[in-house]
């Protein structure tokens, strides 16, 4: 009886220790495959057409690491452990981080609307208010030179009417290149030269470590209702633009297929790269999607598309991985599809 009590006591202590570890916060975040969320229930064009298949946006689950989740992430191939400073700005709260992600989603929604309504030949008007810095990554070149809230007036003497175009220009430069920024801060213009360098977690991608968002007012006709809550970031832009376009036009672009994908979208329909492509492919495959659109980055050997193909092969997925540089690339592929047999 005494040995039995000791065993139970030992078991209780182990459980208590494991439970306690969940409250120990480490200076890391864990990201893992999220969900495939069908867009149609969340975006509705007034008088819009229906669809037999579906367009889905992809999410990644992000959470603070504790010893338990850290060890689990070490054992799961498609979980990633990311230093806290690569997720949040210095001193930024979880609440402020989420607000920033939702602001990026709002900008992405606006881009998707402009691109889709323009492509469908529908009425769209917008007022551009500027490109602003919403986050500066510690340890990257912009830290200490660009501040949250700065308005980016020009880059290397060029002006841009969207954050996506500005980011696209910067990402095409090589590591070590100095980029000249003219900023507006507290009503005054400031010039800063910032040298690009690779991201620690993505050595094939260069940048300065700043998240940008486009501030503008958009008006469209027919009217549209967007109700996407608690999903942040800009990576759903492409899929939202396809859903909106599909509701605006009579032909059903899904042809009965379950279609997923990822990529930022610019107002002119240009598709940009995103993070976490491997995790999104895993999530889409798990959700049983037929087709997955991935940013092609104009054929770059390290593009999201190339990495998506590798991941799909690794997990033995039957999904068709399709490269896209523009919204029109995706529509061209869909227009060639035959109706999916039931």
UniProtKB/TrEMBL annotation:
<dbReference type="InterPro" id="IPR008269">
    <property type="entry name" value="Lon_proteolytic"/>
</dbReference>
<comment type="similarity">
    <text>Belongs to the peptidase S16 family.</text>
</comment>
<dbReference type="Pfam" id="PF05362">
    <property type="entry name" value="Lon_C"/>
</dbReference>
<feature type="transmembrane region" description="Helical">
    <location>
        <begin position="6"/>
        <end position="24"/>
    </location>
</feature>
<dbReference type="GO" id="GO:0006508">
    <property type="term" value="P:proteolysis"/>
</dbReference>
<feature type="domain" description="PDZ">
    <location>
        <begin position="101"/>
        <end position="187"/>
    </location>
</feature>
<keyword id="KW-0812">Transmembrane</keyword>
<dbReference type="InterPro" id="IPR014721">
    <property type="entry name" value="Ribsml_uS5_D2-typ_fold_subgr"/>
</dbReference>
<dbReference type="InterPro" id="IPR027065">
    <property type="entry name" value="Lon_Prtase"/>
</dbReference>
<keyword id="KW-0378">Hydrolase</keyword>
<dbReference type="InterPro" id="IPR001478">
    <property type="entry name" value="PDZ"/>
</dbReference>
<keyword id="KW-0645">Protease</keyword>
<keyword id="KW-1133">Transmembrane helix</keyword>
<feature type="domain" description="Lon proteolytic">
    <location>
        <begin position="191"/>
        <end position="337"/>
    </location>
</feature>
<feature type="active site">
    <location>
        <position position="280"/>
    </location>
</feature>
<dbReference type="GO" id="GO:0030163">
    <property type="term" value="P:protein catabolic process"/>
</dbReference>
<keyword id="KW-0720">Serine protease</keyword>
<dbReference type="GO" id="GO:0005524">
    <property type="term" value="F:ATP binding"/>
</dbReference>
<feature type="active site">
    <location>
        <position position="235"/>
    </location>
</feature>
<dbReference type="GO" id="GO:0004176">
    <property type="term" value="F:ATP-dependent peptidase activity"/>
</dbReference>
<dbReference type="GO" id="GO:0004252">
    <property type="term" value="F:serine-type endopeptidase activity"/>
</dbReference>
<dbReference type="InterPro" id="IPR020568">
    <property type="entry name" value="Ribosomal_Su5_D2-typ_SF"/>
</dbReference>
<dbReference type="Pfam" id="PF13180">
    <property type="entry name" value="PDZ_2"/>
</dbReference>
<keyword id="KW-0472">Membrane</keyword>
<protein>
    <recommendedName>
        <fullName>endopeptidase La</fullName>
        <ecNumber>3.4.21.53</ecNumber>
    </recommendedName>
</protein>
<dbReference type="InterPro" id="IPR036034">
    <property type="entry name" value="PDZ_sf"/>
</dbReference>
